[in-house]
Amino acid sequence: MKKFLKSVTITEWLIWGLSVAAITVFFFAFENTQYLYLAASLLGATALILVSKGNPIGQLLTVAFSVFYGIISYSFRYYGEMITYLGMSAPIAVWALVSWLKNPYRGNRSEVRVNRLSRTEWCAFLLVSAAVTAIIYFILRALDTANLLLSTLSVLTSFTAAYLTARRSRFYAIAYALNDLVLISLWSLASYRDISYLPMVVCFVSFFATDFYGFINWSRMTRRQNNDNDSGL
Questions:
Q1: With contact defined as beta carbons under 8 Å apart, do 206 and 49 qualify?
Q2: How far apart are CA 100 and CA 89, in angstroms?
Q3: Reduced to 3 states, what is the DSSP secondary structure of residue 53?
Q4: Rounded to whole angstroms, how far apart are CA atoms 15 and 172?
Q5: Quick one: which of 40, 68, 47 has its CA closest to 161?
Q6: How many CA atoms lie within 13 A of 211 on its CB side?
Q7: Distance (Å, whole) CA 211 – CA 157
Q8: How far is residue 45 from each of residues 7, 193, 205, 222, measured CA to CA in Å?
Q9: End-to-end CA separation in angstroms for the chain
């Protein structure tokens, strides 16, 4: 635990602290009694800062967040979000957890070894993503899902982010940042109808900031790990 706490930088403490503070303040400022929203948001903020460090514990917390978030999405008929997080994000997060634990960087289980996807895998991944999105679109339309196009776009970005995370690619953070922007839009529309959903908007704004940092940090990790390999360390 001491080693882990020392590994957390001032920037990471600051991002996490501001995220938690903003989420909590907005939750109580609007006298929200849906404590599941608060729990999910705090779990998500903590999970993302750990994922941004390449720490496998972040994936474990992502599984819990996916379950909570799926329940919240169901309450507003965002069936795309519910299906995505319960049927896709949570299982892929379990896969990611196993993958990260199997691929520590030089035996350090608190940092995953960064992976680089081949061109063949990128092409196959893009084709599968398009197929999944098309199928989900018709399912969501049949379920009369609220904000259908945004919900479908959320599925695409969520699937992309989850897969790239499991494959240990630094581009996971870009996909999650795009997903955050979609979710900010979705929950802003929900908040317009019911102000109690506003904390979810704040939640994903904080997630966007964390994912932006995640890409920067994983880029640093990639360079450092490549330099270590080149120098034979």
A1: no
A2: 16
A3: coil
A4: 19
A5: 47
A6: 21
A7: 13
A8: 18, 25, 10, 23
A9: 26
Q: Using alpha carbons, select from 211, 220, 219, 223 the residue that is nearest to residue 184.
A: 211
Give me the pLDDT at residue 168, please.
94
- Which amino acid, one-letter code, is at 202? V
Residue 80, both tokens: 């795309």
Residue with tokens 């941004």: 52
Count the neighbouring beta carbons within 10 Å of the beta carbon of residue 39: 14
Residue 214 in tokens: 């995640």
The residues of the chain scoring below 50 in pLDDT are none
Burial class (CB in 10 A: 0-12, 13-18, 19+), 27: buried
Q: Which positions ≥6 away from 22 have C-beta within 8 Å?
A: 202, 205, 206
Distances (CA, A) of 83 to 29, 108, 110, 162: 30, 34, 30, 14
Q: 2: which strand partners?
A: none
Let me know: does 200 contact 191? Beta carbons within 8 Å.
Answer: yes
Q: Which residues of 43-106 form beta strands (DSSP E)? A: 104-105
Residue 171's alpha-carbon distances to 37, 165, 177, 188, in angstroms, are 28, 8, 10, 26
pLDDT at 4 (0 to 100): 67
The residue with tokens 């199928």 is 135
pLDDT for 232 equals 56
